[in-house]
Amino acid sequence: MTVTAVLAGHSIVAGEPLVGAAGTAVAHDPATDEPLEPAYSLLAVDQLAHATAAAEEAFASFSALAPEPHARFLERAAENLEAAGSAIVARAMQETGLPEARLTGELARTTGQLRLFAAVVRQGDHRGVRVDPARPDRAPLPRADIRQRQVPVGPVAVFGASNFPLAFSVAGGDTASALAAGCPVVVKAHGAHPGTGELVGRAVADAVAAEGLHPGVFSLVYGPGAQVGRALVTDPAIRAVGFTGSRSGGLALVAAAAARPVPIPVYAEMSSVNPVVVLPGALDPDEGADVDALAAAYLASVTGSSGQLCTAPGILLAPRSERGDAFVDAVRRAAEAATGQTMLTAGIARAWHDGVDALGAQDGVEAAGTGTPGATRNAPAPSVFVADVATFLANPVLEAEIFGAASLVVRYSGDDELLAAVGRLEGQLTATLHLTEADAATARRLLPVLERKAGRILANGWPTGVEVGHAMVHGGPFPATSDGRTTSVGTLAIDRFLRPVAYQGLPDYLLPEPVRPDNPWRLTRRVDGVLRAAETEAAR
Amino acid sequence: MTVTAVLAGHSIVAGEPLVGAAGTAVAHDPATDEPLEPAYSLLAVDQLAHATAAAEEAFASFSALAPEPHARFLERAAENLEAAGSAIVARAMQETGLPEARLTGELARTTGQLRLFAAVVRQGDHRGVRVDPARPDRAPLPRADIRQRQVPVGPVAVFGASNFPLAFSVAGGDTASALAAGCPVVVKAHGAHPGTGELVGRAVADAVAAEGLHPGVFSLVYGPGAQVGRALVTDPAIRAVGFTGSRSGGLALVAAAAARPVPIPVYAEMSSVNPVVVLPGALDPDEGADVDALAAAYLASVTGSSGQLCTAPGILLAPRSERGDAFVDAVRRAAEAATGQTMLTAGIARAWHDGVDALGAQDGVEAAGTGTPGATRNAPAPSVFVADVATFLANPVLEAEIFGAASLVVRYSGDDELLAAVGRLEGQLTATLHLTEADAATARRLLPVLERKAGRILANGWPTGVEVGHAMVHGGPFPATSDGRTTSVGTLAIDRFLRPVAYQGLPDYLLPEPVRPDNPWRLTRRVDGVLRAAETEAAR
Q: What are the Aldehyde dehydrogenase domain coordinates in residue numbering (chains A, B) (predicted)?
C-alpha cells in the first residue's frame, strides 16, 4: 500500500475526519511541479467551530490533568510519530523536496521535542508555584495565605511553517509547548505539505484517543489559507496563537488578534537575516584561521535545506583588508562549488528569484559567487553578493530577507563602520561573531548592541541548526518575532501559553493540586520568595 | 517653610529641572476645589526627547549594573522617600483628598516595595540563568555550550494612577519593577497630584545621583496628557510601557504602541468590577455566619478610599432566600451608616454621579441603601443598588465599572443562575467567594470559571488591600488588564521588563557575569533543566 492510499484528504476534528465544504486543494511535488494525490477538502469558515468548540470543551479536563498522564500523552504522540516515521518521511520528501536525511533528522527532533516537554511536565517547574504563607500575627495588619500558580491560557491556534514540515508544523514546537502547558490545540494545516500534516495529525489524534483524553484536545484543519486563518484567530474560544512563517502573514494575524473584542497574544516567528560578523582575528593565519574552511562553512549554512532555514545567514560582515579579500575569494570558490537543491514550492522559488534579481540590481551590489542550478525543478543556483557598508547603510533593500540560498557579504573598514552597520540592523533571531581573543575589544563593544538586536548570539559557529534544549532562545526583537519576550524553541517556549493566578485564603478543600499544602505533585515551589525543592508545608 | 515653597513646578529630566514650553497647569484641592500652587510647566512634545535620549544613554551602564549597587540604589530611593515622608503625605492629602492614615500606609507600601525589589535584585532569580553545557561527544552532532539569561528590555515609560499617588505612581510598582529589571524609567506625571509627584521624583533622582548612576536612569515629565503620553509611547527609545488608569486611556496607549514601526508591549491595568459571590453557607447562622458583620465588611471594602480602589467590589452576588433577604437588609443598614469621603478630583466625582445615575435608572435596578454625603466638596453619598440575575444578564450597563463608592447586589436563585451570571462577566483583577465547606460542590463548579476570568481568587475575605509579596497577582484577563500574562504588583512584576537572550559557544572573556562559568554573582541557575543553587561549574 502506498502512502497516498492511506491518506483520507480531510480535516481531523476532535479525532474524526471532517469533510470540508469549501472545495479542495492539491499539493505539488516541487521537484517536478506534478500534483500529489489526494486532493484535500477545505473547511468553510462556519465548520471551524466544530474544532474550536471541541477544544473549549476539552479545556476543563485537559488543563487539570495530572503530570503523569499528561506526560504519557506527549510520549505516546512521539511513539506514534516514530511508528509512522517511514511513511511520514516518504510523503514529506515528495511534498517539500527536502532530502531524506534532513527529514529523518527533523522527525527525531520532533519526537525528541515532545519527550523533552513530557519531562518538563513531569518535573513541573513551569507551574511556577509561589506560596506566601499566612502571617496572622503581622502588625499592623495580618497577612492572608496567598498562593500562585501558572495556568494554561486556553485553546491555542497553531500555524505551521512550510520549511519545517515536522518540527515547526502539526506536532512541532508550538503544538508541543501548548499541549505541555495544558492547552488544547487547533492546527491550521500548511497547504504545501497536507499529506505530511495528515499523517502527523493522525499520530497525535491517536495518542489523544489512546490515552483517553477528551478528543477536542487536538484538531487539524485544512482550509483556504487567509480566510480560515483569520477566522481561527478571531474565534472567541482561541486564547493564543503560535505562528511560523512570513512577515506579512504574521503581521496579518497580529492585527486580527489585536482587533478582537478580547485581544489575544500572537507568537509569530517571522523574518531574520541573521548577521554574521567576521572580525579580523578570525582571518589571521597566525591565530589558526583557514579562510577556505570558513568560507565553506558559511556556504554550507547559506545553502543547507536550500537556504530555507529561519536562521540562515543572509548577511555576513567581513573586513576590508587583504585577508578579507582572500576570504571573499574563498567565498566565491565555495559558492561556485555549490549546487542548487529543490525549494519547497514553485512560489517560494519564484520569490527567491525576485529577491535575488532585486538585490543584484542595486547600485553598488556585485555578484560574489554563483553556483550551479540543481537537476530538479525549483532548484536555483546558490548566489552570494558583495557590497560595502556605505551602500548597505544607504539602501534598505540590502537588508531584506531573501528566503533561500542567497547571502550578502558587506565589507567594513574599521570598528566604527562595523558598529554603524550593526546598529542599523532590525531585530534578529540570531547574530554571530567569528573572532579570536585579539578581537575582544571590538567584540565587547558589539555585544551590548547585539543583545538588543537578537535572541541568540553565537561565537565561532553558524546559526543554522537550532538546538532544542533548556537554554535555547529561538526568538528575538521585532520583526524577527512579534513578541521578543519569548522563544518558540526550547523548554522556555511553554511559558507563552501560561498566565499566573493567585489564590488568597482559599480553604484546602478548594485549592488545586499544585498549590495544596500537602504538595501532592512534589513541585519545587517559591516559598516567601525562596525556591524550595518538593516538600510539604507540614514537613517544614 | 511650607511644602509648597519647596516645589519647583517643573519636570525633572536626568536629574535637572526642565522648564516646559507648552504652558502650565495647576492641580486643585478636591476637598475645596481651590487651586494648589505652584503651577506646573508642561513639556512640549519635542522636549520629551531630552528624557528619552538620556534614558537610552543610561541603558548600557544601568542594565549591566552589579546586584549590590543596583539594590543599594533602590534602597536609597526608599530612604529618600522616608526622609521626605511628612512633606509627601501632607502634599498628597491636599492633592488627593485621601486621609493621612491611608497615605502614610501607602508610603510605607511604596518604600517596602522598593526594598522588596532590592532583595529580588540581590537574590537574582529573575535573571533566569539557564546553562546547557557543551557535549562535544554527542552523536550524531556535538552540542555547543548554550547559556541563557533574561536581559532588561530597554527604557520604560510609566503612567501613574490618580488613586494611588504613591504606590502606583512616580515611584510605584511599575517604576520599582522596571528599575529592578535594569530599565531606565521615564514617568509621565499625573496631573491630579503634580506636587506629590515632584517630591517623589526628586527622592528618586537624588538616589540616582547619590549612588553615582547615569542621571538618565530616571526622569519625571509633566505635559499635556494625551499628547505627551502618546509621544512618549511612540518614542523609539521607549521599549515597554506600564500604565494604571482608565480603560479608554489604557486602550489608547495600547493602540499607539501597536502602531509603532517596532511595536512594544503595554502593561495597562484598566478596569474591574471584582465580583464577590456569597454562597448560602456564608449566611447560615449554624455555620457561624453574622450577616451584619458581613454587610459591614462589604461596605468597608466598597467605601474605603472613597471606593477608588482598583479592587473594590462593584458587584456582589447574593442568594435569593430568606437569609439572603436578611443580608440585603443588613447591607441597607450598613450603607445608610456610611458617609461620603472626598474623591480624587471634581471630574472623578462627576463621573461617579453619572455612573450612579445611569445605573439607578435602569429597569429592574433599585436602590438598596444610600449613605450620607461628606462635609467636603466631591464627597458623594455611598450607594448600593440591587437587581436580579435576569436583569443583570439582559443589560451590560449593570456590569460597567463605577469608579467610587458604589456597588450592585445581584440576587441569584440556585447554582445555574449563579453560573450564568459569573459566566457572563468580563476579565477581572479579582473574584471572591464567601462560603463554608457546605458550599464546596458549588465552589468547585465556580473555581475553574473564575480562574479563567480573574488574576486573583479570594475566599472569605475582601479584594481591597493588595498584599505586595511574591505570590500576589494584580492582573487578569482583558479588560482588567491589556496583558493577562503578568501582574503589576508583587515580585513577578519584574518579568514584564525582561526578555531572554541565549549565548552559544561564547568564549568566557565575552560572557556577561550572570552566565559566566565562575558564576560571580552566585546565582541559582537551571543546568540542563534542573535548578541548582549557586555553585560554579568547576565545583560540580
A: 27-475
